[in-house]
Amino acid sequence: TKLSSHVAVRKLRVRGGNEKFRALRLDSGNFAWPTEAVARKTRIMDVVYNASNNELVRTQTLVKNAIVQVDATPFKAWYQQHY
Q1: Which of these, 61, 51, 64, 70, lies nearest to 24 by C-alpha position?
Q2: Could you tell me how many helices (H) and strands (E) the chain has, helices first?
Q3: Sheet holding 8-13, edge to edge
Q4: pLDDT for 17-63, tens place per residue?
Q5: Of 80, 81, 52, 82, which is closest to residue 66 (Cα–Cα)?
Q6: How buried is 40 (Cβ within 10 angstroms: 0-12 exposed, 13-18 middle, 19+ buried)?
């Protein structure tokens, strides 16, 4: 999955005739702030680090366990409203 503003999601037929969705390009996701027990949909800004391969950082590839930088605006808004 690449980091891009042109979102592309494809349907896949899987066992049993069901469907899964495969994200080819994404620009946002649902991220959690565990210590405050809050989750918000926010924009992904950048892929910062990937332990498996630096090539994945250079090409902005989103994979499991990649460290990403997200836009903090939804969390700031929640924090201002809550405290």
Answers
A1: 61
A2: 2, 6
A3: 2-3, 19-26, 8-13
A4: 999 999 999 999 999 999 999 999 999 999 999 999 999 999 999 99
A5: 52
A6: middle
Q: How far apart are CA 83 and CA 78, in angstroms?
A: 9
Enter the tokens of residue 60. Answer: 């902005």
Cα separation of 26 and 7, whole Å?
A: 5
Ramachandran class of 17: left when φ > 0, alpha when ψ lies in -120 to 50, beta otherwise: left
Q: What is the C-alpha to C-alpha distance for residues 71 and 53, in angstroms, rounded to an integer?
A: 24
Q: Which residues contact 78 (CB under 8 A, 6 or more apart)?
A: 36, 38, 40
Over residues 67-73, mean pLDDT? 96
Contact between 44 and 26 under an 8 Å Cβ cutoff? The reply is yes
